[in-house]
TrEMBL record:
Organism placement in taxonomy: Bacteria, Pseudomonadati, Bacteroidota, Sphingobacteriia, Sphingobacteriales
Keyword Transmembrane helix: yes
Top-level taxon of origin: Bacteria
GO cellular component: membrane
Protein name stated in the entry: TM2 domain protein
PANTHER family: BETA-AMYLOID BINDING PROTEIN-RELATED, TM2 DOMAIN-CONTAINING PROTEIN 2
Residue ranges of domain TM2 in the record: 46-93
Length: 111
């Protein structure tokens, strides 16, 4: 795979992944073939900033966890009203990293 093409793709997707994941993704993407790269380009990712905003405004209903695919935690937050607000506040600090981790797992499944 062409290094310039991989770098330009990663630059456009930088907000969806943590910095330590970007280096790993770059190394693995340089070794893969063209057909897999096309599949990766078609993936859509959750924006961590949008997820944070949803967490701030509707976090006590667990919507933020449902969006990133944590259905069990979303149901738990919904039934406990966000852990009486405590869980909701904690998620304001954790949800962006959780979103980036879920995005990384999604792309790593294709690598």
């Amino acid at each position: 795979m062409d290094a310039q093409r991989v770098d330009s793709y990663l630059i456009t997707q930088v907000k969806f992944f943590s910095p330590q994941h970007l280096n790993l993704l770059r190394e693995q993407m340089l070794q893969m073939d063209e057909s897999r790269f096309v599949q990766i380009q078609m993936l859509s990712f959750n924006d961590p900033m949008i997820t944070l905003l949803i967490s701030i405004f509707a976090g006590s209903f667990g919507i933020d966890r449902f969006i990133i695919g944590d259905t069990g935690l979303g149901i738990g937050k919904l039934l406990t009203c966000g852990g009486l607000g405590i869980w909701t506040i904690i998620d304001w600090f954790l949800i962006m990293d959780a979103t980036k981790e879920k995005n990384f797992r999604k792309i790593a499944a294709l690598l």
